[in-house]
From TrEMBL:
Known partners and oligomeric status: Homotetramer.
Uppermost EC category: oxidoreductase
Ketoreductase domain sequence ranges: 6-184
PANTHER family assigned: 3-OXOACYL-(ACYL-CARRIER-PROTEIN) REDUCTASE, 3-OXOACYL-[ACYL-CARRIER-PROTEIN] REDUCTASE FABG
Name of the molecule in the record: 3-oxoacyl-[acyl-carrier-protein] reductase
Residue ranges of coiled coil: none
Family classification: Belongs to the short-chain dehydrogenases/reductases (SDR) family.
UniProt KW Oxidoreductase keyword: yes
A GO term for molecular function: 3-oxoacyl-[acyl-carrier-protein] reductase (NADPH) activity
Keyword Repeat: no
Amino acid sequence: MDVRGKNVFVTGSTRGIGEAIAIAFAKAGANIVLNGRSAISSEKLAEISALGVTCIGVSGDISDFTKAGDMIREAQEKLGSVDILVNNAGITNDKLLLRMDAEDFKKCLDINLTGTFNMTQHVLKQMMKKREGAIINLASVSGLIGNVGQANYAASKAGVVGLTKSVAREVATRGITCNAIAPGFIATDMTDVLSEKVKEQVTKQIPLQRFGNVEDIAKAAVFLAENAYITGQVINVDGGLVMHG
Ligand code: NAD
């Protein structure tokens, strides 16, 4: 898809990977919907509008099914359509399984997996009528190989992978693609909470010997939206941490 002039909804785009994805699409000429749980600041909107595209803010919690529908409708009413959805919003809530209570588990699933389902179901109705669209979901290498202390997060992201492949199969005949990106360790607020010792240990395991930048993920997102012949794939952007056989 030629993303110029298209409308891109990026969930959780007030900071980190989501913000970088929004900026990369804006630089490629797409209009942007910024989203976060609370109101989007006028500075953030101005920063992206300064790239010469339209940028609006639509705030709300993606884990609320009704709110997700309201947000997609608001974006469609203001911009005419949502052509690309990037399901980026996500949380970690790390604990060893034996210390994880049911609420710790559920909260991660509710936002990372159910939130992705909520936004995808609401956006697909219009995309199917238009017979064009791209959905890009943020998974994680944790969802592919597991991680100590992340049973909830890894389960949610493995779920995102399964959701991605099923949606890709269901909507391919309508000209809609659905893919996932599995980041490794990317320098953001989410990984900033790791101790220096853990960061050092992790870096040693990464063949490219460094944490990734948010721009590394953003480039992959634009690439997936632009290529209408890639669907149902999980693209690892992880410095070689996970290599498929
Ligand atoms: P981050 O914590 O810096 O930002 C997350 C964003 O999501 C924030 O803007 C936050 O407000 C928003 N958000 C959280 N819950 C929300 C909700 N219920 N409704 C709406 N918005 C909500 O995270 P990040 O590091 O930028 O990660 C972005 C995505 O990439 C996440 O899905 C994460 O799981 C995934 N990921 C990140 C890494 C990494 O190393 N940083 C690795 C693998 C996967």
